[in-house]
User: Which sequence fits this backbone?
């Protein structure tokens, strides 16, 4: 993707966990376009590993559960980079260690931590970074393709993502009072990432998604990252307060003939392609 308007601009990318993260792919694509990339990660240990993968990036440490760390992050970035042209928020967390799998049994502590990390962190970061954002900056968060499907294996993350999707619209409205900063989400379908593999039952869901997707091939991380890159660019200047669904068409195909036959008969019919 050649988006020349990204060249020479500065972007903050939050949430890189490893080389297969969506945030990692976005950071690399931005670098390929000639942008300056600042990466924020949760711990010093992660900063060391990400620094080896992205030696040309400024790596900062910020645990978004602490407001003082978010403020300090914004101050440090502002000292070196007075103008930030965009932010990528790719942060989510839910603890499944004590979760029974029944939604009503999620503890208050775990649920509120999930919302704090997965949703409120965007609000806090946007507020802290506001003095440093270009008047036409673009803020992009990574969400999920639907929060209206009760997938047991996803636990209680979907309600947190629903809050995130709503927060995008309120941030867009609030920032519009004195700027043209845009807020959008990439609502991604199931991805094969290391983080998602740790969710109980996720692998089975991903394999099912491969069958439901019309092309019979799972969503690729680069497809999500490319959409984020588009939303960061000026080519998407007319898009604001939206969530772009990137699921390779999965949502139209739940009643695919082959899948229905498999469900009723217990065997996969021969597919002619």
Assistant:
């Amino acid at each position: 993707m050649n988006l020349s308007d990204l060249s020479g601009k500065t972007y903050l990318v939050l949430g890189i966990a490893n080389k297969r993260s969506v945030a990692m792919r976005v950071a690399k694509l931005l670098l390929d376009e000639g942008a300056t990339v600042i990466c924020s990660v949760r711990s010093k240990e992660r900063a060391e590993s990400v620094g080896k993968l992205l030696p040309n990036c400024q790596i900062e440490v910020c645990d978004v559960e602490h407001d003082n760390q978010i403020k300090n992050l914004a101050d440090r970035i502002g000292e070196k980079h007075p103008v930030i042209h965009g932010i990528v928020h790719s942060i989510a967390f839910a603890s499944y260690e004590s979760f029974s799998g029944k939604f009503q049994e999620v503890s208050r502590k775990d649920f509120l931590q999930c919302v704090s990390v997965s949703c409120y962190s965007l609000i806090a970061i946007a507020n802290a970074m506001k003095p440093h954002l270009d008047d036409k900056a673009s803020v992009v968060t990574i969400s999920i393709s639907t929060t209206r499907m009760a997938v047991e294996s996803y636990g209680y993350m979907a309600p947190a993502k629903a809050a995130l999707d709503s927060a995008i619209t309120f941030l867009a409205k609030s920032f519009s009072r004195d700027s043209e900063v845009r807020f959008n989400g990439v609502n991604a379908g199931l991805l094969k990432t290391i983080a998602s593999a740790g969710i109980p039952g996720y692998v089975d869901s991903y394999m099912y998604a491969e069958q439901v997707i019309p092309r019979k091939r799972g969503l690729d991380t680069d497809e999500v990252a490319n959409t984020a890159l588009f939303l960061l660019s000026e080519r998407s200047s007319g898009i604001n307060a939206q969530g772009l669904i990137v699921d390779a068409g999965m949502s139209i195909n739940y009643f695919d003939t082959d899948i229905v036959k498999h469900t009723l008969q217990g065997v996969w019919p021969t597919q002619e392609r």
The chain has nine helices and seven strands. The first strand starts at residue 10 and ends at 14.
